[in-house]
Amino acid sequence: MGFGQGLSGLNAAAQELDVIGNNIANAGTVGFKSSSVTFSDVFANSPVGLGVKVASVNQRFTVGSISNTGNSLDLAIDGTKGLFRTEDPNGNVLYTRNGQFFADKDNFIVNAQGQRLTGFGLIGDDLQALTVPVGNLAPRASADVTTRANMDANANPVYETGVTEVLGSVWMDDAGPGASAQYQYRIGSTGQISWFDMTNNPVSLPDGTYTATTDGVTQDSTTITLATTTGQAASPAGALGESATVGTAYTAPIIAHPFSLTDPESYTHTLPLTVYDSVGNSHQMIQYFVKRPGGGGDSQWDVYYALDGNVVNAATPHEITYDTAGRLKTGTNANLVIPNPGGADAPADALELTFDYTGSTQFSGDFSYNFTQDGFPTGEYAGLSVDTDGSVIASYTNGELRTIGYVALANFNNLNGLKAFGDNSWIETGASGQPIVGRPGTNGLATIKGQALEESNVDMSQELVNMIIAQRFYQANAQTIKTQDQIVQNLISMR
């Protein structure tokens, strides 16, 4: 009779409806993997089958859609190969695709069930529970400063030593003996003459003829004619040179500008930057670049360093030279040692700085630069993020980033061999094989997407279709039983 077959069909259909219902119920569960039912027929030394049974319930480990959440510890596995590895408070190792994590009171990264997310430390391959950092990031004193600058090749040199201008003087008499006056003159490179009195004030001498003397007392016959209002001596040629007591061609003075923070003309370019001492205090370091008169085909620049307004190498500036092609020739590195940069009020270790000018040039154009320094002040923990390779990166208020560990992913040769543990987790079984654990993106494992979650892979429309089919399957088997019952009743009534 077909009662057994029909009952087996009802049982199989009921289990399939259970699976479909479970899929639909978990359509909104993060990381949920839908299941499907596999059936097999039943034979027992009979030419007619004895019905159907549920051979297995298999989960579909396909990837659900990934949505961004903005939560720093929300993680999504972007690929099929990979499960988060967690440990519950009892030490049981569990696996899940649910990436909803947060920090608990003990600073462990956990899910809603209190299972701790595990991963790798910075050194070694030992698995450990991942934590968020606590406390401040200790400061680091600046040590290396890298400067890449272009010095203006056309900048005027700054002289350290001045040269006094050379003046000629002559007595000129336009009123007769005893009425002479002494004047200074300066002859320019093109022959122009400028006149000054003996106190170095400029004067304008009217055109006319003057008698020149050698000493202001003894008259001679030399006369000087000023033919124009520019003061040009028109006649005779060379009269000034012949009759002057100290007469030589005028040389423009070279004005000295010894280096001084308060004299902007004593330096060519400045480059300010911030450095930090051993206790995290910031200090303003300014590099002063001074172009010097060149020699031997090379261009020379002196570099002075001032910390918080105090020059630290006034007596021994760092010297940099460039060749005729504008390439750095000497002075690549400069070393400074500044004792107790914080002073008595904020004592700190000596600041030992190395300046690296590799790659600096001297071309025409404006002064330009970029620089880096490796120090930073203390910083407070600000947040956590996870990179695609599983790097867990802590950020601090001082702008520093620190990798504190790596999220571990696990994969199995037979994912359907895993045993459902509940709470959207699985445990290892002999059928699943041992886990293959590694960093995301290695050994074929998927990568991680931070601030995102993998949604359920339930296809709602397909599940509704499956439900209708299972319902018809159930109804058909029920009809089989009903028909068999009617036949039996007819047989009984015939007696």
What features would you describe in this structure?
This protein has 495 residues and is mainly beta. The chain folds into 4 domains: 3-62 and 457-493, no CATH class; 67-134 and 406-453, no CATH class; 144-159 and 257-373, Tick-borne Encephalitis virus Glycoprotein, domain 1; 168-243, no CATH class. It contains 3 helices and 36 strands. It has helices spanning 3-25, 239-243, 460-493; strands at 35-41, 52-59, 66-68, 75-78, 83-87, 93-96, 102-103, 109-110, 116-120, 127-129, 144-152, 168-173, 181-187, 193-196, 208-213, 219-226, 233-235, 269-276, 282-295, 298-307, 310-311, 318-322, 328-330, 333-338, 351-356, 361-363, 368-373, 381-386, 391-396, 401-407, 409-411, 419-422, 425-427, 436-438, 447-450, 452-454. The strands form 8 sheets. Strands 5, 6, 9, 10, 28, 29, 30, 31, 32, 33 and 34 form an 11-stranded antiparallel sheet that branches. Strand 20 and strand 21 (310-311) form a beta hairpin. The longest helix is centred in the C-terminal third of the chain and has 34 residues, at 460-493. The two termini are 19 Å apart.
Shape: rod-shaped
User: Per CATH, what is the topology of the largest domain?
Assistant: Tick-borne Encephalitis virus Glycoprotein, domain 1
Unreliable stretches: 174-178, 214-220, 228-239, 241-250
Secondary structure: helix percent: 10-25%
Taking the alpha carbons of the first and last residues, their distance comes to: 19 Å
Number of helices: 3
Largest sheet: 11 strands, antiparallel
The level 1 CATH classification of the largest domain is Mainly Beta
Rg calculated over all Cα atoms: 47 Å
Helix/sheet category: mainly beta
Number of strands: 36
Q: Give the name of the CATH superfamily of the largest domain.
A: Flagellar hook protein FlgE
Total individual domains: 4
Mean pLDDT: 84
Report the sheet-strand fraction: 35-45%
CATH architecture of the largest domain: Sandwich
